[in-house]
Design goal:
By secondary structure, the protein is mainly beta. It folds into two domains: 172 residues, Jelly Rolls, CATH 2.60.120.260; 160 residues, Sandwich (Jelly Rolls), CATH 2.60.120. Helix content is 1%, strand content 42%. It has one helix and 23 strands. Strands 1, 2, 3, 7, 8, 9, 10, 11 and 13 form a nine-stranded antiparallel β-sheet that branches. Strand 4 and strand 5 form a beta hairpin. The protein is globular, with a radius of gyration of 22 Å. The N terminus is likely disordered.
Length: 338
């Protein structure tokens, strides 16, 4: 079920793009990709247009584009979500596709093994989560979706053919916790395990969401960075852990931040099961310091384990940086609690 009324992209704020190649999303099969490959759908950005760039098959396009269909039917592309979860919205972006965009699109979803072959996926049970809906050329076509099931794959159907620059599938990550025991240490803050940065004092140069992304940062833009603070106080970011847990180790990575890393950091935690912790409510929460103020170095992975103070179980972590600057990743290693 969906709504095709106009939606502001801000409506998806706080949700994760489950299909992004950055988190492991992959286009595994398509009916046709004559002019442009299916893998472009999941790349960052909205795509670029280079007027004088052509290939032996025609105009080069930064997206997925099929040939003109001369037989009955429609084109489709199956995507394995990088992170399985509950889907809340979709962005079918036809940026730069003006005379060659599809007239309509729909989306199906299924829950299948992540190693299923394309042939096996064709035989899977698919559920329509976005009915056939009109698309506008050269724009972000945004759809709010109502779906409560955990999905692993989506199928984008375009009618009858044409090009789509990018596909974003926004939702909440739902990890498979059945494979993790309480004795194992996992990164409770990672987006892969359902962690989410729910608030930050500032993110002028770099998004707070970068803090919990997989892998190390590729460059300075792939981290969280605040503007230069000219008044009193300090900057901070709050992470909601993917699961209630007991913290054993913390990593603060200033990778690529050389002349703009924070001078000092500290980490607080709280156990706040009954309410929302965000930019408005965080001062009302009882925080416990687990890592006192500690000097940081440029372009370095800082691991803190032996010096951590006991905190009990917690739901949220607050990274404080003094006075400002950039951190590429925050890892919060611990044991899940039931």
């Amino acid at each position: 079920m969906s709504t095709t009324q106009p939606i502001d992209v801000a409506a998806f704020s706080g949700l994760v793009d489950l299909a992004s190649e950055r988190v492991g999303g992959k286009a595994v099969a398509a009916s046709d990709e004559f002019f442009a490959g299916k893998e472009n759908l999941l790349k960052p950005g909205r795509g670029v247009f280079i007027p004088d760039r052509f290939t032996e098959r025609g105009k080069w396009m930064d997206g997925w584009e099929t040939r003109r269909k001369r037989t009955p039917g429609h084109d489709w592309c199956i995507i394995k979500l990088g992170l399985s979860g509950i889907i809340r919205g979709a962005d079918i972006d036809t940026n730069h596709f003006l005379g060659n965009n599809p007239a309509y699109a729909s989306i199906d979803a299924c829950s299948a093994g992540v190693k299923r072959s394309p042939e096996a996926l064709h035989r899977a049970v698919w559920t329509e989560i976005l009915p056939r809906s009109p698309l506008k050329p050269g724009t972000q076509n945004l759809f709010s979706l109502v779906s409560s099931q955990r999905w692993t794959h989506v199928r984008l159907n375009i009618f009858p053919d044409g090009g789509v620059a990018r596909l974003r599938i926004y939702g909440d990550v739902v990890p498979d916790w059945s494979r993790i025991t309480s004795e194992q240490m996992v990164d409770l803050a990672s987006v892969v395990n359902g962690g989410k940065v729910v608030a930050a004092s500032d993110m002028f140069f770099g998004s707070k969401e970068n803090l919990v992304m997989p892998g190390r940062a590729t460059n300075m833009g792939d981290g969280w960075e605040t503007k230069r603070r000219r008044g009193p106080g300090h900057d901070w970011a709050i992470v909601k852990l993917g699961r209630l847990g007991r913290i054993r180790k913390i990593e603060v990575d200033t990778n690529h931040f050389k002349g703009n890393f924070p001078e000092t950091c500290s980490v607080d935690v709280c156990n706040h099961l009954t309410g929302v912790v965000d930019a408005l409510t965080w001062p009302e929460v009882e925080w416990k310091e687990v890592l006192p103020k500690t000097k940081l170095r440029a372009h370095t992975r800082h691991l803190f384990e032996k010096g951590l103070r006991s905190s009990g179980v917690c739901t949220h972590v607050r990274l404080n940086i003094y006075p400002d600057g950039g951190v590429s990743r925050l890892r919060v290693w611990g044991n899940i609690q039931t």
